């Protein structure tokens, strides 16, 4: 995995986020700033205040799936004290758990729904703009592996973290101008920068190397 590391000015990035959040009643100007003049209607939709309660309920389902997977793994590893009940009981229990897993359907639908939301798209675009406006022009290849980067949205879905989902739903459901700049920079993943280290003021980007 090839990653680029570039430093940015943390205070300036927050200022740039605030600058765009203040344009809640100026979608055309916001589209101009983000360099997406053809997406004014999409921006209008992203500015509209809507509820994200569905995110919490969907992540609760993912949490159930994570717990079910752990239970299946425990049964397969023989961690339950089922020996006195006989092998048939363990087999039957595992069959029941596998049937429950099949009923969950496609797990990709939740993140697909999330990333299709105009508010999420808009805030990710704001995050990109803030970084583009505050980077130091010192990009270099990084040694970090993608797996070592804490990606908040991906981690929320993979772990079924309901508390994170509640906090995220609360922020996404606010009026646009009330959104916390720190949330935009650190809890979203943007369209380009995968991860921000606010303490070290470093951003990490995935950049494919041609011919590899």
Can you summarize this structure?
With 212 residues, the chain is of the alpha+beta class. The protein has helices at residues 10-21, 27-33, 40-47, 53-76, 87-102, 109-115, 118-132, 152-159, 162-172, 181-186, and strands spanning 3-7, 140-142, 193-197, 202-206.
Can you tell me about this structure?
The protein is 54% helix and 8% strand. Strand 3 (193-197) and strand 4 form a beta hairpin. With 212 residues, the protein is α+β, with helices and mostly antiparallel strands. The longest helix has 24 residues, at 53-76. The model has no long low-confidence stretch (mean pLDDT 87).
Secondary-structure blueprint of this entry?
Blueprint lengths: L2 E5 L2 H12 L5 H7 L6 H8 L5 H24 L10 H16 L6 H7 L2 H15 L7 E3 L9 H8 L2 H11 L8 H6 L6 E5 L4 E5 L6
Task: Quickly list its features.
212 residues; alpha+beta; 10 helices; 4 strands
Question: Considering DSSP H and I runs of 4 or more, what fraction of the residues is helical?
Answer: 40-55%
Low-pLDDT segments: none
How many helical elements? 10
Instruction: Report the C-alpha radius of gyration, rounded.
Output: 21 Å
Question: How many β-strands, per DSSP?
Answer: 4
Task: Report the portion of residues in β strands.
Answer: 5-15%
* Distance between the amino and carboxyl termini: 10 Å
Listing every helix as H and every strand as E from the N terminus to the C terminus, the arrangement reads: EHHHHHHHEHHHEE
Average of pLDDT: 87
Largest sheet: 4 strands, antiparallel
Q: Structural class per helix/strand content?
A: alpha+beta
Spatial ordering of strands, largest sheet: 2-1-4-3
Shape: globular
């Amino acid at each position: 995995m090839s990653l680029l590391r570039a430093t940015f000015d943390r205070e300036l990035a927050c200022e740039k986020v605030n600058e765009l959040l203040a344009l809640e009643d100026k979608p055309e100007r916001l589209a101009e700033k983000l360099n997406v003049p053809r997406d004014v209607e999409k921006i209008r939709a992203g500015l509209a205040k809507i509820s994200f309660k569905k995110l919490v309920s969907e992540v609760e389902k993912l949490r159930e799936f994570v717990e079910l997977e752990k239970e299946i793994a425990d049964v397969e590893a023989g961690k339950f004290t089922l020996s006195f009940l006989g092998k048939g009981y363990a087999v039957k229990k595992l069959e029941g758990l596998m049937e429950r897993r099949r009923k969950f359907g496609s797990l990709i639908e939740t993140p697909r729904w999330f990333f299709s939301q105009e508010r999420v798209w808009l805030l990710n675009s704001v995050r990109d703009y803030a970084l583009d406006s505050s980077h130091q022009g010192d990009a270099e290849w990084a040694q970090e592996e993608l797996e070592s980067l804490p990606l908040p949205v991906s981690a929320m879905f993979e772990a079924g973290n309901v508390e994170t989902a509640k906090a995220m739903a609360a922020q996404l459901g606010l009026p646009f101008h009330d959104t916390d700049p720190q949330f935009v920079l650190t809890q979203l993943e943007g369209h380009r920068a995968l991860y921000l280290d606010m303490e070290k003021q470093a951003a990490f980007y995935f950049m494919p190397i041609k011919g590899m």
